[in-house]
Amino acid sequence: MNQSLQLDHDIQDQHKRCRIYQVPRLVLVVLIIVLLAAFVAALLLLLSIERKTEQAGRCVATDSDKEAVYRYASVASSTMVCSQVGTDILAKKGGTAVDAAIATLVCVGLVRFHSSGIGGDSFWTIYDRKSKKAYTILARSKAPLNSTSTMFENNTIAIREGGLSVAVPGEVMALWEAHQRFGQLPWSDLFQPTISLAENGFPLEATTANAIQSKVADGTIDKFPHLRNLLINPATNTWYKTGETVRNPTLANTLRIIASEGAAGFYNGSLTKDMVKELNRAGGIITEEDFAEYHAPFTEPLHLRLHGNLTVYSPPLPSGGVVMLYILNILSGYNLSQEDLSNHNKTVLTYHRHLEAFKHAYAIRSKLGSPDGETPEFVQKMEQLVRNVTSSEQGEIIRRLISDTSTYPWQSYNADFYIQEDNGTSQLSVLGPNGDAVSVTSTINSFFGSKVVGNKTGIIYNNMMDDFSIPGVTNSFGVKPSTSNYIKAGKRPLSSMSPTIVVDKTGTPVLVVGAAGGTRITTTTAFLTSMTLWLGKRMKPAMDTPRIHHQLLPNEAVVSNNAPDWLLDGLKKKGHKVKLTSSMSTPTGILQLEPGKIFADAPGFIVDGF
User: Fold this and answer.
1) Is 522 one of the annotated active-site residues of the chain?
2) What is the CATH number of the domain that holds 383?
3) SS (H, E, C) 209-232
4) Of the four listed, 6, 184, 325, 418, which is most buried by Cβ atoms within 10 Å?
């Protein structure tokens, strides 16, 4: 009996001990289950994010993303599908930055056919990281050999549309020159993605749809049946709309010929006779000799040492690089830093100084012209102007002329004549995994260029003759045109395009930038350079910050409509006539301030990278 009682007592004690130990064991089991569940949830979330952002080894960022950051390389163009084409060349094919730029630009010419293409021209800035040298390709269109300075005096419509407005295209020669020197993949491989897109179709982008509607509204398209046919959706028999599938088999065949024959097929081969016939039927004067004699100089870019141990590269005349560098030369002496945006008063002053630098730079632009085919005296004059605007002494002279409290009437800036407006473009920026960089700006000038579309080639031809000045034609301010930019046989018109690359003291590219948008290209490129490299903003914040433009005439400070009232009021108090706009230029930019952290952006478009 006593033994039984003792056993019962022992069992009860054991149960108590078990209950005591069971509680922590239960907690431990629950804790393990919770941790496992959390781990699985985190893993699923990570995989979900990767599925959304990783496509064939790339990280794709749309304009709705907060910021695009890459580790090795990036391609920033004006259209999603083409940025992906360029990234595939780098990541999948092992191509160079130039290979990627070529493939991307050919694609842009197809997809953004309202503003770019092989019927136009381009400027290139290329940086070779290994040699630490920069180069430029000046593929600006040229006036036909039969051109004269007075050919449009009594026909200002013909300079904007039709065959007579077409200058000899330079785009294909630029692609060829770049590939000959820096290409690694076979030339034909770089055309295949675009040929496939042209044959199988691509979605029409909103920018092109808007361009179509603008030309429908002004009645232009009805005068050009081949352009009209290109812009009508055969499935609906109405104008193409955003998102609808566009095919261009005619252009695909032309691209296939260029892929097979190289630049020779365009300038002295299978396509040349057809292009001359197409242009002559449209009233043009370009001959086979014009095509055969065309060349795109491969040369050194202009460069400038900037505050912060930086060196900036941009093309020489007839590009806008001279004007853009002059702006940076003036601003560099202010030793700008994040402190200059630290409060309202300092921010207003910083914006004011930028506007004043813009105005002085555009006064110089009115004196510039292309040295092609000009007299030795003219060439010497241009060379001296370029030396002046890139000298630190000239920058200091202008800073002494700038008042921090007020602006001045436009006559005070020593401009010679009015600024000839240029038009829409496309910008491409590439940073390769080995540190090579490419910045390209390409254009056919106005929306759909000359409006002449080759019925056999599918090429939309430029209206680059409109970038020349016309004798005897004054602007709305009664100011005479610039004699430095008059038409001359074989001459290239002045341009605002200024593709730019900035490197640090070690020779590493830190910024690849440029813009589309006519005369606002130079000011936007300089503004973004200042914002990112001096004023401490990353690429997307720099593009999102209120932007400004001034070209001296019209005498108004153009400000993006996201500017706060205090900034607008501050500029007005300094005497600026402010004009708000929702349509500034459209830049692309890649910023790398430390290894493995690449920031890229292209407002409203898409950037790509890995």
Assistant:
1) no
2) 1.10.246.130
3) HHHHHHHHHCCCHHHCHHHHHHHE
4) 325
